[in-house]
Specification:
The protein has 429 residues and is an all-alpha fold. The chain folds into 2 domains: 1-48, no CATH class; 49-428, no CATH class. It is 77% helix and 0% strand. The two termini are 43 Å apart. 51% of the residues are buried.
Length: 429
């Protein structure tokens, strides 16, 4: 590798450690590279303004984010929790199982782990604590089940992976169903084990009338993912158009059917979503510059050749990459990580002949676990804010639930058909 490339990497890492925003660190570190190599600095600006940031599919990212924000403001979180409590609260672990089902359902509306914790998570934790569950268990399962947000479609991280990798977003969306159910199942088993040990209570089996009323109360909320996926799968709408419909639908049911969204909350949701997406778009634009440098230096091909020359098995290579992703997830937010390192990892994944579709879902799940790990785990900070618990106590509460999450990741790596079977049947078949 050239000295100017090494200078760029060292400068970028130094700026990031100095808490310079990621996008600014990338751009500032790239300027010396362009100067030393004699590439006109105008190329830097044109690179930022082209490529992935101009992708039509990327427009779905802020739209799905806004739809999730409207869902949180529309009292939908509470309706989803009540629906789940009625239908699975009778199981061993009671509200622990309710927590998982509610997160599974809400994932089909928000597409974000942070949205799950911030909105539905408050309802879940308070509901469990009020019913006699200890604070640590309530917090741990709430944070762990939030990782379902980016796996069950629609998912904002998956949209970013699609834009970065070129893998069909519809295939990724459909591929997320079985992994989502697998994660939910492993978490439910863990809740069952802990609940038996601690003898947690459970509610009586619901009557038919109670079940019917729960469906009635949550019907419009539950229709959100159905409308999105049916529209995309039938080809009536593109993912971006489906995202626009999701925004309109969420606004209509929150404003006119449930009547829980106010003008003030509407404006706040739009403003917060714009701020969040603007920062992500800045990272995407900056990453185009980094991708330009990596491509010019053949970094991905160089690393892929190293892996092939080492003669490592496909499975071992994937686990090694995921270990790196999990480590980076402790420091870098999932959206930024997708944009920054996927262009480096994909040549390696292709070199060992692993499915880029399966790797995408596994990568997203592994990187999202970073919000549950110190020192910068956003999920841990939100959990501490909601419960009033110490940061490290929150981390300790979620540790047991890493076991089912790691089991799910290992199963997906060893059996990639868990991800690819549905897309192969429904999209390509």
């Amino acid at each position: 590798m050239n000295s100017e490339f090494i200078i760029t990497l060292v400068l970028m890492v130094t700026l990031m450690l100095a808490n310079v925003p990621i996008w600014a660190a990338i751009v500032l570190a790239s300027i010396p590279y362009f100067y030393i190599t004699g590439i006109p600095i105008a190329v830097l600006a044109s690179t930022m303004a082209s490529g992935g940031i101009t992708s039509f599919i990327l427009l779905a990212f802020p739209l799905f984010s806004l739809a999730g924000a409207f869902m949180n403001s529309g009292d939908i979180s509470k309706r989803i929790f009540n629906f789940a409590e009625t239908n699975v609260g009778w199981m061993r672990g009671g509200l622990g199982q309710v927590n998982i089902l509610a997160s599974l359902l809400f994932a089909g509306m928000s597409g974000s782990a942070v949205a799950d914790i911030s909105g539905l998570g408050r309802v879940e934790m308070q509901g469990m604590i009020d019913k006699g569950y200890d604070r640590e268990f309530s917090t741990g399962i709430t944070l762990a089940s939030s990782v379902l947000g980016p796996i069950i479609p629609p998912s904002t991280p998956i949209i970013l992976y699609s834009v970065t990798s070129g893998v069909s977003v519809l295939s990724l969306f459909i591929g997320g169903f079985l992994p989502g159910f697998l994660i939910a199942a492993t978490l439910m088993v863990m809740v069952n084990i802990i609940s038996r040990k601690r003898n947690y209570a459970r509610r009586k089996f619901p009557t038919f009338k109670e079940q019917l009323m729960s469906w009635k109360e949550a019907f419009f909320s539950l229709m959100t993912p159905v409308i999105i996926l049916v529209g995309m799968f039938t080809g009536i709408v593109t993912p971006t158009e489906a995202a626009a419909i999701a925004v309109l639908y969420a606004a209509v049911i929150s404003l006119f059917i449930y009547k829980t969204m106010t003008l003030r909350s509407f404006i706040k949701d739009v403003r917060d979503t714009a701020m969040f997406c603007a920062s992500t778009y800045a990272i995407i634009a900056a990453s185009m510059v980094l991708s330009f440098i990596f491509t010019r230096e053949n970094v991905g091909i160089y690393l892929a050749n190293l892996v092939v020359a080492a003669g490592l098995s496909q499975t071992l290579v994937i686990f090694m990459l995921l270990a790196i992703v999990l480590l980076l997830g402790c420091f870098i937010e999932v959206s930024a990580m997708i944009i920054l390192i996927i262009p480096i990892l994909l040549p390696i994944v292709n070199a060992v002949g692993y499915s880029t579709l399966a790797f995408g879902l596994i990568f997203v799940l592994t990187s999202v676990m970073g919000i549950l790990t110190p020192p910068f785990g956003l999920g841990l900070f939100i959990g501490a804010e909601i419960t009033g618990m110490d940061f490290w106590k929150v981390f300790k509460s979620v540790l047991p639930f890493f076991i089912p999450l790691v089991i799910a990741i290992c199963a997906m790596v060893l059996f990639p058909d868990i991800v690819t079977v549905l897309p192969n049947l429904l999209v390509q078949g």
